[in-house]
Amino acid sequence: MMQRTAASSRVTLRAAIAGALAMAVAMGLGRFFYTPVLPGMMAGLGLNAADAGIIAAANFAGYLIGAVLAAYGWAAGRERSLAIGALAATVLLLLAMGLFSGVAALSVIRFLAGLASAFAMIFTSGIVLSIGLAHGDPRVQMAHFSGVGSGIAVSAVLVYLLSFIDFSALPAWRADWLFGALLAAAGLAAVMALLPRPEGGASAVREPPIVWTRPLVALTLSYGLFGIGYVVTATFIVAIAREGAESPLLECLTWLVTGGAAALSLIAWKPVERRSGVAMAYLLAILVETVGVAATVLLPFPWSALVGGVLLGLTFIVITAYGLQLGRVLASRSPRQVLALMTAAFGVGQIIGPLGAGFLAARTGSYALPSLAAAGILLLAAAITVLGGALSIKSR
Fold this sequence. Notes:
396 residues; mainly alpha; 13 helices; globular
């Protein structure tokens, strides 16, 4: 019995570390590295907020298409290879961002990076979360999703440290992308060594179609609106920090506290989950995030950026993890499909968010209106969660 327990612990530990590193590469770097580098890109390339929103939206469009493609049965039995391939593509695309200029070229690269991020997140999550569930170890999920915040925090420190180095003819923002690619390559090597293969051959079985119930529809809709509401702050918060005072230290601190809070968020919310359940924790996290998004433009500077970053970090991974957990409960026979389709709804929201926010910010000269609109959309997501009966979901 002890031998079997020890073996089980080794498997779950490997899965947890591999999952955290994969999410750090795919999401913390592949998706969110754009945020701390964006102010430098805007200054160096003469981009305005609308241009930045277009490039960001291209990434989210790729994420959406990747999520939709991942929902189908063609990937059955190939999850590990696809996850590793997507992470390798992420490394190359981070490198490419440091080599090209122009909104069109950068948008194509970010589109492909979004596609790679979706594949890496969905196929890695399918492997890692299934192992955690099979071995009855909830710590696997917490470690897996904490990788996003850890990747964000590390990227903040990386960009800050690179700001002290003079690369001569190489613009600082290009150096950021190149060193980000090197960091991602190190993570990829570790994931290749650690990521287990799916257990029991279950992944080779094609899933039945999802049965759409009222709570599942409400959950998916609220999750899509969350994609709009959070992404405005997640994309522009470092630019908001620079707008208040051009300080590399403050920009680093803003993104660092966001990532640090994100890395610890699932642990911080665990008492709420135990006391009130996953569905209520999901709702409360949306409401807290609403406050955080509004805080970025309502509080006096620099507290607006720092408090907004902390509240964003404390909630966006929690909402993601709990939302997908609830989806798996409601569609337990089709876990990969529901994961992919909820991610697709999220992706639609993420396309709308930066496009609308960038347009409004360029027109008004401020991030105030788009941020307040995003807070209103998060309130709508909370209302749909309640009215659609999603709070009745009992998580297993």
